[in-house]
Amino acid sequence: MDDLTLTAPARPAPTPQRPLLGLTVLVVEDSRFASEALRLLCLRSGARIRRADCVASAERHMGRYAPDVAIVDLGLPDGSGLALIGRMAAGPKPPAALLATSGLDRAEAERAAREAGAGGFLPKPIASIAAFQQAVLALLPAERRPLGLREVGAETVRPDPLAMVEDLGYAERLLDEGGVAPNFVAGFLQGVARTGGDAALLAQARALSGPGAGDELRERIRAVIRARRSERQVV
Questions:
Q1: Which among 180, 192, 191, 187 is positioned nearest to 208, based on CA atoms?
Q2: Which domains does the chain have, with CATH numbers?
Q3: Which of 42, 113, 117, 161 could form a disulfide with 47 if both were Cys (CB 3.0 to 4.6 A apart)?
Q4: In this predicted model, what pLDDT tens digit does every residue of 80-95 receive, in sequence order?
Q5: Integer CA distances (angstroms), 79 to 69, 98, 113, 170, 180, in order
């Protein structure tokens, strides 16, 4: 019998219109609203997306395949996004582009992410298609980038507002989990507020991020969440 050489299917070549065509992006993000924004950005850019909503899920993904791009939120419910970035960067098959994202104040979050091993940083809200594409392309080797001129526009994506309501419900459920600190939930709400352009919620979440007694802080956060959910569910 003749020997047959099996080859992997050819990777689609990127184009100026879809510069991330052929890439797989692993999004490690527990916010449904932020994940939806990244899904739309990847879709418009030609990339495939996989999502992990916690550290454990992300590590299972990394154990099964090697994504071309990883975008890791710094605040995750079961561990540190910074530590996960460090493990990804030092792993046997690190992503070609490893980026961090956060809804916390940019300067400190970006500094910590780069020190952990991230090559780039995406501050929330992540809405600009051109900015997203440029952040990823800047970290890819030249042979993985599209040839020719690429039109840079001002187009943005708009996730479904219902995803933000889902995030508020998720934040309330986190408060009932004994292993999740109230300050984590307050930080999560900051990210949700930035992504959704909710200035009032952002101010409230920042005010909740300081020191405070556990049960008292939980009830203050719960009151804010319920008020915002009630307002957003009014038709």
A1: 187
A2: 24-144 (3.40.50.2300), 162-233 (no CATH)
A3: 42
A4: 999 999 999 999 999 9
A5: 21, 18, 15, 17, 10
